[in-house]
């Protein structure tokens, strides 16, 4: 009879906790090592596309997440200047089309749901990983305090700046995309009356776009503004800035949108970097998961969904693998690399189409969106992402 596998997860974010939950429910002994002093997430919104919700269903958390989420009937794409509706994707029928709704959540709320579901997983805080070595029969992680841990498998779920990825595959050089972002959060009662807080919105203009959508049961409106610029190159999500920067940048945009910006008490900015997807995730008994393996631009709204799917597949393959965990990790890699690569490259392509500078190019794009809305059949989403939403990781693992 195969012995209980001991799994060390580096990183206590959404992907790491989802993997811990999936693994403990399949009988593994799991230890999560998190460099911060407690489970914490930045105060930002997160989109959960139907495939992500189906992964949460596989983890047994769909109802818990729905209780803290917002569900919108439409994604309204609007013109940056006039405010006219370019396209309206009806999200209300996603349950019928794709088998699950589209939800939006506060990152901290989702992390809390994942953490509360853990039963046997050990959590070690203040553990900053500085290196991992993958051997043929085990893997070892080293930490900044000089401690080490040996496990049957070490999983790097330590995000976009992954120390595990760098340790296994060397330092990669991220490419600055030429885009910077600002984010804010507003209580819905403080939102101007001419802003729709019940649905998702995307304002598309030359060299930029702005999205806003409700989170936390519709109590808050999350705002993310993107613009092509090389004026800022820091990747941090926690750098505060003055709202005047945002107001100046979007001064010529629709007044209904720009009136929204001063309503947020705090604004943060960061620069977007792109990384090529890895073709290999494993070295011996060490592997990667989530952003450490496939950090992607936010333009398909599916970064968290890919990490949740990774977690389900990894746990299933380890459970199936018995004592041959090396083969299990190879099966995990083969199952996940093609889909996550398609998501990374799809988000990269969207980045270009979202920020078209030419008025004629934007007109052609907008007409395409309108035609998809009317004649797109089952996949009448503006960005043709039915292939992404239709995937059901639970069904695939049966």
Question: Can you characterise this structure?
Answer:
This protein has 14 helices and 19 strands. The strands form 4 sheets. It has an 8-stranded mixed β-sheet. A 5-stranded parallel β-sheet has the order 8-2-1-12-19, with helices on both faces. A 3-stranded antiparallel β-sheet has the order 3-7-4. The protein has one domain (6-173, 276-396): FAD/NAD(P)-binding domain (3-Layer(bba) Sandwich). The protein is α/β, with parallel strands linked by helices and 398 residues long. The mean pLDDT is 93.
* Binned strand content: 25-35%
State the end-to-end distance.
Answer: 22 Å
In total, how many beta strands?
19
Q: Find the CATH superfamily.
A: FAD/NAD(P)-binding domain
- Please list the strands of the largest sheet in the order they lie side by side: 6-5-14-15-16-13-18-17
Specify the number of helices. Answer: 14
Q: Structural class, please?
A: alpha/beta
The main β sheet shows up as: 8 strands, mixed
Taking pLDDT < 50 over at least 5 consecutive residues as the criterion, the unreliable ranges are none
Helix content: 25-40%
Envelope shape? globular
Radius of gyration equals: 21 Å
The whole-number mean of residue pLDDT values reads 93
Query: Under the CATH scheme, which architecture would be assigned?
Result: 3-Layer(bba) Sandwich
Briefly, what CATH class?
Alpha Beta
| CATH topology type | FAD/NAD(P)-binding domain
The oligomerization state is single chain
Q: What number of structural domains do the residues give?
A: 1
């Amino acid at each position: 009879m195969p012995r209980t596998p001991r799994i060390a997860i580096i990183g206590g974010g959404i992907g790491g906790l989802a993997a811990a939950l999936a693994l403990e429910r399949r009988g593994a002994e799991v230890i999560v090592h998190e460099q911060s002093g407690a489970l914490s997430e930045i105060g930002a919104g997160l989109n959960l596309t139907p495939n992500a919700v189906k992964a949460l269903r596989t983890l047994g958390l769909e109802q818990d997440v729905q209780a803290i989420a917002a569900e919108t009937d439409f994604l309204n794409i609007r013109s940056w200047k006039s405010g006219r509706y370019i396209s309206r994707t009806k999200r209300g029928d996603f349950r019928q089309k794709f088998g699950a709704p589209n939800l939006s959540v506060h990152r901290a709320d989702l992390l809390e749901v994942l953490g509360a579901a853990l039963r046997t997983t050990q959590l070690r805080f203040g553990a900053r990983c500085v290196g991992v070595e993958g051997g043929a029969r085990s893997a070892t992680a080293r930490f900044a305090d000089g401690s080490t841990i040996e496990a049957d498998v070490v999983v790097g779920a330590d995000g976009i700046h992954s120390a595990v990825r760098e340790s296994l595959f060397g330092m990669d050089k991220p490419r600055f995309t030429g885009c910077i972002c600002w984010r804010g959060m507003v209580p819905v009662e403080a939102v101007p009356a001419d802003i729709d807080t019940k649905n998702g919105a995307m304002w598309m203009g030359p060299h930029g776009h702005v999205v806003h959508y409700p989170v936390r049961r519709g109590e808050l409106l999350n705002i993310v503004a993107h613009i092509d610029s090389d004026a800022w190159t820091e990747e941090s999500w926690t750098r505060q800035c003055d709202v005047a920067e945002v107001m100046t940048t979007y001064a010529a945009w629709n007044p209904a949108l720009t009136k929204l910006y001063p309503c947020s008490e705090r604004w943060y900015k960061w620069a977007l970097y792109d990384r090529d997807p890895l073709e290999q995730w494993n070295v011996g008994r060490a592997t990667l998961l989530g952003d450490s393996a496939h950090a992607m631009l936010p333009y398909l709204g599916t970064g968290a969904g890919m990490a949740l799917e990774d977690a389900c597949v990894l746990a299933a393959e380890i459970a199936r693998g018995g004592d041959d965990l090396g083969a299990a990790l190879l099966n995990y890699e083969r199952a996940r690399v093609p889909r996550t690569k398609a998501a990374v490259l799809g988000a990269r392509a969207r980045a270009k189409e979202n920020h078209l500078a030419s008025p004629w190019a934007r007109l052609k794009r907008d007409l395409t969106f309108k035609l998809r809305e009317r004649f797109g059949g089952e996949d009448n989403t503006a960005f043709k992402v039915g292939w992404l939403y239709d995937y059901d990781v639970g069904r695939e693992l049966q």
